[in-house]
Recover the amino acids of this structure.
């Protein structure tokens, strides 16, 4: 999705090839005036070009949906993933050049050429002249509504994105294609926060129309950066914004408070990722009066984290064991390379005499609930954990409502939520930061496209606000665990290192981290 001097019409052709998804065919746009400059797209789908085959592993490159007994395929994997050393297969995997996942194209377009080409496009397609042309030449069969013309005339990007999503939901072909054409002239991965976000959201709409959302989501790994590169992007986001640190510190504080009198501690982490969360907790436990407790961590893996690491869970165990040894903390690590949906209590190896803590950090929203299928793993896992009698359960989740929301509401919620995220990134990473686009592409864009383009089991990003999580946890038998004043003070100290636009709000057994007037991450503890 990159909008990456030619003569003006040459510039149009070049930018079309970068800005428009080749899997989407505008053949339904029957108005020649609206579609005059639109590139024609191949009808070939990602499946045809990428040869998807059944696989037990997730092909999304991200958190896979859970196995289901339905006939709907839960995981398929393109052949191009099987051997990324095969350059012909790898290079021919058909990602949209306008896609956030084909960002290699930015390296192929010089920044000055990009600016000149975009400027040429804007000069040749000034809004007034375009609207006048449409008014004079629109056929009687396909007339663009007056409201749509007014929206385009105002050039309000956010309003246009929402109107385009509404047209997609209403199957309003003329308005949809017209707005998509206008939007692709306005969005840019190198522009303002709304322009950058709009580029990824437009890609999601295009993928949704082409019924290729799941294919795009799965094919992303065809352009996946190397493991060290992906880890560097994740680390840059970790340092630039306090979202992950907020979740980790608040959860660790609740665990430390609940375990302050325990000598044998077992922590089950339902998404261990790189194990970063536990560094500070191990160091804190090492200084406990009377000596450190025995600590055992069971880390559950997922395909995205494994892909980012490039190696198995053993490297996480080695890092944590090395740190614990240097701190004088008796330590044991157990790695479980298994989908969270498949976890049963016997997998966790709970031992008598151990105080159990269970950590759900940005993972439960990937687990499908009753709205997806008859197997409600989301609530099943909570009930299973409650039956293990943990001393504390920590939950960190996006404060967003996209799980069961209808498409248009889901789109607007995603737009509002991620706009705050992009604005906060803009505050931390300068517009000319060479890795900012990579951070947004590889750490955020994948989720945005999945929320907009995919449905059913293929939509694995299913956020719920804390109010809904509170209801689920209460139904499973949990009660809020009050966070100590020390935890709150620690988070406040953390935020002093970041922009004053971040907000911290306290609730009963929970904390909200937000950007200006929007809560973004909620952290809570339960017993």
């Amino acid at each position: 999705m990159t909008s990456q001097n030619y003569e003006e019409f040459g510039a149009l052709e070049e930018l079309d090839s970068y800005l428009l998804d080749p899997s989407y065919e505008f053949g339904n746009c029957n108005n020649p005036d609206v579609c005059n400059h639109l590139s024609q797209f191949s009808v070939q789908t990602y499946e045809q070009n990428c040869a998807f085959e059944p696989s037990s592993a997730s092909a999304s490159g991200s958190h896979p949906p859970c196995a289901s007994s339905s006939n709907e395929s839960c995981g398929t994997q393109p052949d191009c993933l099987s051997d990324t050393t095969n350059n012909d297969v790898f290079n021919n995997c058909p990602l949209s050049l306008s896609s956030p996942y084909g960002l290699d194209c930015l390296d192929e377009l010089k920044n000055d050429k990009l600016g000149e080409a975009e400027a040429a496009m804007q000069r040749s397609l000034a809004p007034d002249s375009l609207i006048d042309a449409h008014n004079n030449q629109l056929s009687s069969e396909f007339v663009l509504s007056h409201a749509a013309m007014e929206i385009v005339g105002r050039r309000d990007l956010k309003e246009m994105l929402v109107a385009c999503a509404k047209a997609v939901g209403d199957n309003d072909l003329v308005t949809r294609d017209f707005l998509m054409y206008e939007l692709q002239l306005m969005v840019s991965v190198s522009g303002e926060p709304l322009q950058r976000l709009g580029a990824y959201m437009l890609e999601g709409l295009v993928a949704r129309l082409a019924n290729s959302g799941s294919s795009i989501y799965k094919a992303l790994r065809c352009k996946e950066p190397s493991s060290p590169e992906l880890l560097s992007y994740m680390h840059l986001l970790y340092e630039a914004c306090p979202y992950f640190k907020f979740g980790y510190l608040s959860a660790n504080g609740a665990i430390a408070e609940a375990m302050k009198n325990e000598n044998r501690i077992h922590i089950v982490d339902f998404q261990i990722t790189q194990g970063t969360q536990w560094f500070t907790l191990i160091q804190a436990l090492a200084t406990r009066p009377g000596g450190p407790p025995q600590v055992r961590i069971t880390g559950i893996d997922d395909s995205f984290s494994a892909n980012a690491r490039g190696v198995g869970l053993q490297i996480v165990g080695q890092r944590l064991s090395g740190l614990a040894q240097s701190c004088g903390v008796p330590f044991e690590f157990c790695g479980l390379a298994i989908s969270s949906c498949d976890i049963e209590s016997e997998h966790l190896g709970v031992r008598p005499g151990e105080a159990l803590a269970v950590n759900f950090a940005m993972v439960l929203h990937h687990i499908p609930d009753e709205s997806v299928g008859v197997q409600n793993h989301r609530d099943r896992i909570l009930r299973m954990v409650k039956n293990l009698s943990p001393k504390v359960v920590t939950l960190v989740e996006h404060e967003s409502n996209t799980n069961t929301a209808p498409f248009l509401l889901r789109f607007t919620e995603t737009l509002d939520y991620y706009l705050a995220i992009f604005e906060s990134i803009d505050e931390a990473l300068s517009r000319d930061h060479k890795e900012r686009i990579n951070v947004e592409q590889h750490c955020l864009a994948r989720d945005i496209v999945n929320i907009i383009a995919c449905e059913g089991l293929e939509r694995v990003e299913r956020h719920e606000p804390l109010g809904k999580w509170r209801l689920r946890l209460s139904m499973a038998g949990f009660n809020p665990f009050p966070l100590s004043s020390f935890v709150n003070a620690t988070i406040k100290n953390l935020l002093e290192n970041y922009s004053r636009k971040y907000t911290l709000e306290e609730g009963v057994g929970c904390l909200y981290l937000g950007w200006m007037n929007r809560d973004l991450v909620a952290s809570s503890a339960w017993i």
About this structure: The radius of gyration is 24 Å.
